From TrEMBL, chains A, B:
Keywords: Oxidoreductase. It comes from Ruegeria atlantica. InterPro entries: 6-PGluconate_DH-like_C_sf, NAD(P)-bd_dom_sf, PDH_C, PDH_N, Preph/Arog_dehydrog, Prephen_DH. The keyword Oxidoreductase applies. Residues 6-295 form the Prephenate/arogenate dehydrogenase domain. This is Prephenate/arogenate dehydrogenase family protein. PROSITE patterns: PDH_ADH. Transmembrane segments: none annotated.
Amino acid sequence: MSQIYDRVALIGLGLIASSMFWAMKRAGLAREVTGYARSEKSRETARRIGLCDRVCDTAREAVEGADLVVLCVPVGAMGAVAEEIASVLKPGATVSDVGSVKRGVIRAVQPHIPDGVHFVPAHPLAGTEHSGPESGFAELFDNRWCLLVPVEGSDPDAIARLRALWEGMGSNVDEMDADHHDLVLAVTSHAPHLIAYTMVGVADDLRRVTDSEVIKYSAAGFRDFTRIAASDPTMWRDVFLSNKDATLEILGRFTEELFALQRAIRTGDGDHLFDYFTRTRAIRRGIIDAGQDTDAPDFGRGKASS
Amino acid sequence: MSQIYDRVALIGLGLIASSMFWAMKRAGLAREVTGYARSEKSRETARRIGLCDRVCDTAREAVEGADLVVLCVPVGAMGAVAEEIASVLKPGATVSDVGSVKRGVIRAVQPHIPDGVHFVPAHPLAGTEHSGPESGFAELFDNRWCLLVPVEGSDPDAIARLRALWEGMGSNVDEMDADHHDLVLAVTSHAPHLIAYTMVGVADDLRRVTDSEVIKYSAAGFRDFTRIAASDPTMWRDVFLSNKDATLEILGRFTEELFALQRAIRTGDGDHLFDYFTRTRAIRRGIIDAGQDTDAPDFGRGKASS
């Protein structure tokens, strides 16, 4: 793989940024990668583990002279960061981001992008429940999708170059408009996360089922929910507030459907339940066939933990 | 590990029974294991892959002379099977089961247990989304909990022997009464499964988000839900119908909580969301510390599928 950018700046050094650094290094995609994190502790950690070629004490310092600037901060912080770095952006540079919501990020960031600088929003569909500068690894994006969400007037060359970077980091790349992106993600990610958070909160609340029992006996099902519900609170708060309409629409459909199943349980309508559960099995098969998950039973966890 | 039973009969040859067979063989816990499945195809598969020392064409034949009979059929079928085998049960034998609901199984099975035969219900908290005779593996129960739910008058020696069997198959064993079991499982397993089924069904229904997109872009979150929602439809229909009261109670609490979070999204109450999500993170940490899951990011899936 050959070099795609001379200098890349990563603003925010969490799971995604740190994985991007290791993935870029693995494939030699950038000559120098600078990094900035708001917290001094994160900057110190980054320096200690060799995350970024140069860790800077301000976002402006990290951005100066960069050909690509990637905003890797929570969605709610994107606008302020864009405003802060705007005046030092190099003419001809590209600004991108990795936010899970696109319409809100575009609304917050685009007004700060100077003429002659390209803005190409992006969203890598990859993650784990861990966060922080030490959570990244080079393989995070391998065979995962990265969605580019060009805005009106995005420069085709700038888009092509960013696409090459993500492909170089192992991703498959697609393009999509912002509103459609936000609806698809509300279904596949945002609503499921809120539901998982809710269920884990309910379990925690129930006084008759002691915490230790819930933890001790958390078989498949709840265990998966707790993994999802362990994700970064700041990131997810911002996601829900920024993708309010689509999330609330999906949650409305969800409760409607849940009430129908609750009613089937209450009235003993086994056929309704059986048909519903049979239908949901097919979509799982599709996900495995599409290469987006492993068919190993229980993710091979039974064996891994033995 | 030394032999615990001379002859064990497994009625039903799905994921749990087939895993029990391989786990018993691994540790030499039984001299002979017979098996029976209602479907001829499952019996043929079992014979082909060497599942059970002897595969029988009737449940009664499998049960004759057995020291331990384990009912591994869906919860809704337990009563009929117990009635069918009752008259051939060997005096002094133990009947057990592996059902996910205990009060309903006890109600259905206990009336058929003859005098002089012991009844010790059990529930191994282990599973994967796969089913059928080929889905089992010896390590399924390793370091997982198995809950014994003795009924009034269960013989202490019969309980101790069954405990030794489960420990020999790799499980940790606890005892619990039936009603408490059913409530704990409603929280940790039954309600989460229904919720996952619902969310996957909603995604499938939405015409604006095409199926292929939902599948293609199913990032963490939805992917985990689809795994849960791929579980055996018959088994889960029976679970919900048999554990109706506890499941409906938990679902009621769940919707209450979900509505509060939806309201926080609608009104833009970020603090409520942040505090809630911070609280749920702690319970995940507890599960990892309790050894019930791996701390590997995303179950190591990012690497496994690359």
